[in-house]
Amino acid sequence: MGNVFLTSDHHFGHQHIIDFESRPFADVEEMNETMIARWNDVVGRDDRVYHLGDFSFLNKEKTKAIVERLNGYKVLIMGHHDRGRSRTWWLDAGFDEVSEVPIVYGGFFFLSHEPMYMNKHMPYVNVHGHIHSQKYEGRQYVNVSVEHWNYAPVSFEDIKRRVVPSEEQ
Prior knowledge:
The chain is an alpha/beta fold. It has helices spanning 16-20, 28-42, 60-69, 87-92, 156-163; strands at residues 4-7, 48-51, 73-77, 97-99, 103-105, 109-111, 125-128, 141-143, 154-155.
């Protein structure tokens, strides 16, 4: 396996997200194509990507066409906008794995769509999306919504460097 990447909240096909989040795109086609290109600029074929929800507002055929264009082994952790469709729907749309609940990665990182409550004494980090351009303070939260990462997935190594002091790595 190659590198591991995390991302969320692409909202492929969602015209209104451009205005809601002041995304720098003229229209949904430009947004979709730019996000596909930026994904493939950083993710290789042998890499793994955890998508933390709210992937697409398109029908299954159009969603599958996008998923097929994206590099990597793709794992979807369903977000609130994904829940109107079944786990099987997302697998049929091309995801390699789909989880309806948050997962623990590396024994230390909670991967979830929405931010989870993290007591400041808890020794974990919550990698999440959902709140788009907003951000929680502190090293226990990392928002991987595309608005924070130039509309591309971010490597797990970059996240780890931000939250784990260098002497602990």
